[in-house]
User: Fold this.
Amino acid sequence: MIPYSILDLCPIPAGSTAAAAFRNSLELAQHAEALGYHRYWLAEHHNMPGIASAATSIVIAHIAAGTKTIRVGSGGVMLPNHSPLVIAEQFGTLASLFPGRIDLGLGRAPGTDMLTARALRRSLTHPENFPDDVAELQAWFLEPEPGQKVRAVPGAGLEVPIWLLGSSLYSAQLAAEMGLPFAFASHFAPADLREALRVYRSQYRPSEEHPRPYAMIGVNVVAADTDAQARYLFTSVQQAFTNLQRGRPGQIPAPIDQMDPYWTPEERVRVNQMLASSVVGSPETVRVGLAKIVETYQPDELILTAHIYEQAARLRSFELIVRTRNEQ
Assistant:
């Protein structure tokens, strides 16, 4: 069985607060650890009313401190927003506090709009600079050279696994060239998934740390006792993506009985395209759907995500998902 992991954005349900979202995420992480999930990643987003994981390294510390064995990391840190040295120090700190449990996934998008990206106080670097930033970050984790005047403290000499994240062929090519594990964001941008995996695997250059390619793919999964219940819960995700298409992101909406009155036919097509990598239904429906994805794409790992409005239903969904895997 391939590992199952969780991608969490600390969703803020409508009418709730970031503080409640952090409590919910810790509860889910503890639940996931008990259920046998492999890793629990947090994603960096900014100026999003429904996402509380902007200060990603701090939330990772919160989750890692409340768990014992599950790997915790970023899925990802948006490196263009930060100095590589600062990220090395932050994740060196995390790796020192929680040795052997921290992952550093990196993305090259800002995780927000351009106006907010400027407010983050980083110059808007060209995407072509991303490989250099990744290489610089890797260098900060090496043992310092004699006479080296600047070093990451903590960070230097620590083993912090670095992943490249992406939703394009560019990221797949770069991960292959650098000999790094690769996570594809098919949970919101599935169009290039097949080709990205082909490029990554065919062009992979073995590295000392990673002699073989390792590919993880993102999937939206909502499980409930029946297909109808799961489809009802999934309307929160559909509404959230529709609102994002309208340029009006907000807190995670409560589920509704029917989506057709909510979105236009054009919005429905666009949102369904973005959410094509989704499995929604009863345990049996989820089992079959995930098995088909694994058979089709042969990932080394699945990372699952879902914006579910009610915390109890969210916990229940991830419990049912892992049960379907164990029954295979």
Observations:
- The mean pLDDT is 94.
- The beta strands are 4-8, 39-42, 71-78, 102-107, 162-166, 182-184, 215-223, 278-281, 301-305.
- The longest strand covers residues 215-223.
- Residues 260 and 268 are 8 Å apart (CA to CA).
